From TrEMBL:
Residues 3-121 form the Response regulatory domain. InterPro entries: CheY-like_superfamily (IPR011006), NreC/VraR/RcsB-like_REC (IPR058245), Sig_transdc_resp-reg_C-effctor (IPR016032), Sig_transdc_resp-reg_receiver (IPR001789), Tscrpt_reg_LuxR_C (IPR000792), WalR-like (IPR039420). This is Response regulator transcription factor. Residues 148-213 form the HTH luxR-type domain. It comes from the Bacteria. Signal peptide: none annotated. Keywords: DNA-binding, Phosphoprotein, Transcription, Transcription regulation. It holds the Pfam family Response_reg. The keyword Transcription regulation applies. The modification 4-aspartylphosphate is found at residue 54. It comes from Saccharopolyspora oryzae. The keyword Phosphoprotein applies.
């Protein structure tokens, strides 16, 4: 059973999302929060698999709440999906940098919401939509002087190749096919890269790849 917490200052939004998610046999909404501070509290209290986090809330906003949850050593398994009204938003980019596993616009289809919760709960980043990579590329490109991420120099040539493919949004199976590896080897490479770079998940790897200029925005497919 996937356990989820809903954080949004609008009661009707929470009720709508709860209705959708609780209708699934493998998902249970275990808590709600009306602001960022309550979201952080609920995450620590309930240890959900996924927190659906509105980016704009009164008091402590979703960005800071995400940062606190994702940097809390007691909550390594808690994943955050950002909810936003705008698909290109610098706050969303900052949240991805802080450790969020992906984002959804609030008018997403119910099937996409359910899929997103399942994807993130199993430990993957919500990177399939090209819009997520476009967002990262756009804001990373605004940096005047991209600097290599600490630890990037510790990657082997093969690991750098794998990181580029991750940044392009490829799955482990697709990376294995592209680089002529076994899927297990590709998965091992990704895990080692995350460990070396101190990344929570693939979303952060994508951010690091673009900010370090390891991959250029024009390479997007």
């Amino acid at each position: 059973m996937i356990r989820a917490v809903l954080a949004d200052d609008q009661t009707l939004v929470r009720a709508g999302f709860r209705s959708i998610l609780d209708g699934e046999d493998d998902i249970e909404v275990v808590g709600e929060a009306a602001d960022g501070a309550e979201a952080v509290f609920r995450a620590g209290e309930l240890r959900p698999d996924v927190v659906l986090m509105d980016i704009r809330m009164p008091g402590l906003d979703g960005l800071e709440a995400t940062r606190r949850i994702c940097t809390d050593p007691r909550l390594p398994a808690v994943k955050v999906i950002i909810l936003t009204t705008f698909d290109v938003d610098d706050h969303v980019y900052a949240a991805l940098r802080a450790g969020a596993s992906g984002f959804l616009v609030k008018d997403t289809e119910p099937t996409e919401l359910i899929h997103a919760v399942r994807v993130v709960a199993r430990g993957d980043a919500l990177l399939a939509p090209a819009i997520t990579r476009r967002l990262i590329a756009e804001f990373a490109a605004r940096s005047e002087r991209p600097a290599p991420s600490p630890g990037l120099e510790a990657l082997t040539d093969r690991e750098r190749q794998v990181l580029v493919q991750v940044a392009r949004g490829l799955s482990n199976d697709e990376i294995a096919e592209r680089l002529v590896l076994s899927p297990a080897t590709a998965k091992t490479h990704v895990s080692r890269i995350m460990s070396k770079l101190g990344a929570r998940d693939r979303a952060q790897l994508v951010v690091l790849a673009y900010e370090s200029a390891l991959i250029a925005p024009g390479w997007l497919t």
